[in-house]
């Protein structure tokens, strides 16, 4: 529904993609890695249950919106940053580059970890070597151009990020199909620790 905070999971060849975990044996418990889940009280989760021996049957629970990220170590914050504006449509063909910017009000020296989340339709980059870049640094988001839907989570070195605008550039030289960035668009998830708490026990 184009909301930037929505989870972007989907199924591909009937297998779930970009989800928090799968349990196939009793007691059907899943340990979630929430180290890069943004600090927010608007986190929701749902379960999709498949029945053994009946692959055609699945049950989805309603979203549980009473989930909150547990307290973090003192001074640690995880924030989500999305572009204010994006090209529409956000695709590149015939060497026509498309760009957007993600603003960060974060001191790079405080960044412990950063990730870029992006979902694309992979129509191929053609002969372009660096088809997707962040601040000029190439990132591998495309596959083999096999008209595929891909969800990428890419670790970003803190030194590659700017305080202020961070430009994402998309370029494909294919004529009819290219790489397409799907809604809700790219986003940076940044885990920081304030300098004042670095010496805390």
Task: Supply database-style keywords.
single chain, 201 residues, mainly beta, five-stranded antiparallel β-sheet, four-stranded antiparallel β-sheet, 0% helix, disordered C terminus
Structural commentary:
The protein starts with 9 loop residues before the first strand and ends in an 8-residue tail after the last strand. The protein has no helices and 15 strands. It has strands spanning 10-12, 15-17, 43-45, 48-51, 54-60, 64-67, 76-81, 98-104, 111-122, 132-134, 137-138, 148-155, 164-170, 179-181, 187-193. A hairpin with a 2-residue loop joins strand 10 and strand 11. By secondary structure, the chain is mainly beta. The protein is 0% helix and 39% strand.
Q: Secondary-structure map with pairings?
A:
Elements: E1 10-12, E2 15-17, E3 43-45, E4 48-51, E5 54-60, E6 64-67, E7 76-81, E8 98-104, E9 111-122, E10 132-134, E11 137-138, E12 148-155, E13 164-170, E14 179-181, E15 187-193
Antiparallel strand pairs: 1-2, 3-6, 4-5, 7-15, 8-13, 9-12, 9-14, 9-15, 10-11, 10-13
């Amino acid at each position: 529904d184009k909301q930037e905070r929505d989870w972007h999971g989907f199924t591909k060849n009937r297998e779930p993609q970009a989800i928090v975990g799968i349990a196939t044996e009793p007691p059907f418990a899943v340990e979630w890695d929430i180290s890069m889940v943004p600090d927010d009280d608007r986190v929701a989760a749902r379960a999709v249950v498949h029945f053994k021996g009946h692959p055609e049957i699945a049950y989805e629970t309603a979203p549980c919106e009473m989930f909150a990220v547990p307290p973090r170590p003192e001074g640690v914050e995880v924030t989500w940053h999305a572009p204010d504006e994006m090209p529409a449509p956000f695709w590149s063909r015939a060497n026509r580059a498309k760009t957007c910017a993600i603003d960060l009000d974060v001191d790079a020296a405080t960044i412990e970890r950063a990730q870029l989340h992006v979902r694309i339709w992979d129509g191929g980059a053609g002969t372009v070597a660096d088809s997707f870049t962040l601040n000029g640094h190439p990132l591998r988001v495309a596959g083999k151009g096999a008209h595929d839907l891909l969800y990428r989570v890419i670790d970003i070195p803190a030194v590659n990020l700017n305080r202020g605008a961070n430009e994402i550039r998309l370029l494909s030289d294919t004529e009819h199909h290219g790489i397409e960035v799907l809604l809700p668009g790219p986003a940076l998830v940044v885990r920081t620790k304030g300098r004042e708490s670095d010496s805390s026990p």
